[in-house]
Amino acid sequence: MATTPLAFTFVCHAGPLEPQAVLLAASLRRYAPHVPAVVAVPQPERTWGAPAEHTLAAFARFGIEVAPVEVPFGRERPLTNKIGALRIPVSADHLVLLDSDILVLGPLLDHPLLRSAADVVAKPADFQTYTRDPADWERTYAACEARVPPHRVASTVSGHLGPPFFNSGMVITRRPRELADVWERCAHALAATEGLPFAPHRWDDQPAFAVAVHKGGFTVEHATEQLNYPAHVRALPEATPPLLCHYHRPRVIRIDPVLRGVVADYAARYPEVARVLWAHPEWAPFVTGTPDARRAPAPDLLISGIPDGGAHTLCDLLNRYDDGVALVDPPEVEGSLREHQQPWGVPVFLRETRTAVADGRTDFRPASPDFLLAVANSDGALLARADAVRAVLPRTRIALCVRDPYDTLADWKRADDRPTPATSWLPEAERAAWQRIDAGPDPAERLALRWAWWARQLLDRPDNTVLVTHEQLLTDPRAALASVLEGLDAGRAPADLPRSGPVRDRGALDARDRRAIADICVPLAHKLGIVVHP
């Protein structure tokens, strides 16, 4: 048998997962038209069922070979189907094992890792879903008669450091049968070991794979998100779409105009695909859809600023648009900003909120599935961690709200509220600055210095941020919203936006407070372009 440089293999489960496998087949043939590809169908049929005739017809249309495979643990541990898929006899220098919930979005064959000299290529997991306890890892490796490797790898979304742990949705290997054998032995060993932190169906997949790669002595090269992009967590990048998009669930496709367009295009182009999608309620709407003309991710907007700077007012205005949804202080965002070094919970919340709205699980009814989603953090945690947020959401617009310091500090003093950032994640110099503020002997000066600290964060704000003053939101909301929404689409604006003057209740400020504000805050306010009314 002649050897081909590359071959693909993936699994088709009978039933609701058939559309995923057919769409993967269509996308493989678009971007790798002549590369051998085999779909693994778990056996026996009395346990797993058989793919529908129109599904098999779609595989035949795309020249995908169908091969029966045995699953080591049966239906109780379905993710071990990947082990069987690696054993399909394919004569190739490199075999690419793919989860069926993946779409090829670009010229995959140009990627150098498909010709890697390493025995195994895989992407580190998005999150550490197994365990972050070193003792658990010790027991896991010991169950397989192996030692935990000394080096540590960061999960690509959450940034958690730990022993190598991979997302097995995309694996490139030069030694598929050997990898399958070691992977299965490790899965059996872990299944027989009590006291391990297994989530349902996880133990037979990623932990066993991680141990197998190390125990088998395979050389490893790490892939980036270009070859395994977590679309369930983050919107697709506009400039350079990934080559392999791991979307996980059909509702993720429903909220992303690029992916919607891809699936609708395949349904329109291939009757075989349309028949498979039409037979499954979650996928049927894509058959009657048309490719999205915009072909860009739906817009998100983050809102923060100096505490009590106007974030609530901005959200109230955005919610008046027919295609805008603005949420204030969701606890998931606050928790992520304060508890995690990399605030990966923010993009996760954005994606999950979009799917909830698309599923009708919220009270919001925007005009289109590509509505503007705005999320506000009003206590300043997002402003204090703007650089960290920018690292996980590099292209998302951030609106930062600020208000006359006299009004802001009067509210702080009246409410006995002294907003403090999550200092544990601040640089050492900023933590020291807060310690100096807290140690100051003069209460009026401490209050003013707190506002000044937040103001300096605004002066050093990252790119793709827009500063909006509370006074402008009240007196000229249309102009303020035009600057916030430039390049974004919140749908039809209301015919009239409420206009009012700012309410100035400064009775809580005494002469010392006013003097400290004038000396410390007003110069910074002028630098920010705030019109101050002493």
Fold topology:
Blueprint: E1 4-11, H1 18-31, E2 37-43, H2 45-48, H3 53-61, E3 65-70, H4 81-86, E4 92-98, E5 102-104, E6 120-124, H5 134-143, E7 153-154, E8 161-162, E9 166-173, H6 176-191, H7 206-215, E10 220-222, E11 229-230, E12 244-246, H8 250-255, H9 257-269, H10 271-278, H11 285-288, E13 300-305, H12 311-318, E14 324-328, H13 331-339, H14 345-358, E15 372-376, H15 381-384, H16 386-392, E16 397-402, H17 405-414, H18 428-439, H19 443-459, E17 465-469, H20 470-475, H21 477-484, H22 511-527
Parallel strand pairs: 1-2, 1-4, 2-3, 6-10, 11-12, 13-15, 13-16, 14-15, 16-17
Antiparallel strand pairs: 4-9, 5-12, 6-9, 7-8
Helix pairs in contact: 3-10, 6-7, 9-10, 18-19, 19-22
Mean pLDDT over all positions: 90
Extract low-pLDDT stretches. 291-295
Q: What is the radius of gyration?
A: 27 Å
Total beta-strand segments: 17
**Main sheet, how many strands, which sense, barrel?**
7 strands, mixed
Q: Give the amount of beta strand, in percent.
A: 15-25%
Label the structural class.
alpha/beta
With strands numbered from the N-terminus, the spatial order across the biggest sheet is 3-2-1-4-9-6-10
Query: How far do the termini sit from each other?
Result: 86 Å
Q: Number of helix segments?
A: 22
Helical coverage, percent range? 25-40%
* Outline: elongated
